[in-house]
């Protein structure tokens, strides 16, 4: 759980309190869709959000997760330039989100060095995560990518037991359910995981 006092200080903290709005969203909520115009920048206080890219055929791929104390740099960049969203953001686990008006988020870049540092640190982190996605798609085999995704989810939920369907994993990896099911079975035979209905346990 993150809070405003831990994230920001002084005048910036006061501004965030005055202009930000805290909302709760259940898992599965779509808080930003492709082609939507951005009115607010989300900062996650608890829970998590997954950010995905969707092509014209509806195929998806997971770009990164937004965890407590973090925001979505792609939303920020699109918002301050008044451009439509290129990504889709879905609540992965029940989340409490601080929504900052996009106009204020742009103004604070000039007013508060602390906010500028926050944004640039996010930019660097997301850039590195996107490079990892590109490397994985271009150079890694499906079993490696799938195991990395399961470890990500395990860390996110702080549990070795992950409640997820084969289709959800396929969507996040940008592949087919059949391919994921085949690789999961191979991983189970290798004693890396244990499979049950809509649940995967890391061994």
Short summary:
The protein is of the alpha+beta class. Helix content is 47%, strand content 27%. It folds into two domains: 4-137, Jelly Rolls; 141-202, Winged helix-like DNA-binding domain superfamily/Winged helix DNA-binding domain (Arc Repressor Mutant, subunit A).
Describe this structure in words.
The protein is of the alpha+beta class. The protein has 2 domains: 4-137, Jelly Rolls (Sandwich); 141-202, Winged helix-like DNA-binding domain superfamily/Winged helix DNA-binding domain (Arc Repressor Mutant, subunit A). It has 8 helices and 8 strands. The protein has helices at 4-7, 10-19, 73-80, 102-111, 113-139, 142-157, 166-173, 177-189, and strands at residues 21-25, 30-32, 40-54, 60-66, 88-101, 161-163, 193-196, 199-202. The strands form 2 sheets. Strands 1, 2, 3, 4 and 5 form a 5-stranded antiparallel β-sheet that branches. A 3-stranded antiparallel β-sheet has the order 6-8-7. A hairpin with a 2-residue loop joins strand 7 and strand 8 (199-202). Helix 4 (102-111) crosses helix 5 and helix 7 (166-173) packs across helix 8 (177-189). The model has no long low-confidence stretch (mean pLDDT 90).
Measured by DSSP, the beta-strand proportion falls in 25-35%
Rg result: 18 Å
Largest sheet: 5 strands, antiparallel
- Please give the CATH architecture of the largest domain: Sandwich
Average pLDDT confidence is 90
User: Alpha-carbon distance between the termini?
Assistant: 28 Å
Would you count the extended β strands for me?
A: 8
Q: What is the CATH level 1 assignment of the largest domain?
A: Mainly Beta
H/E topology pattern: HHEEEEHEHHHEHHEE
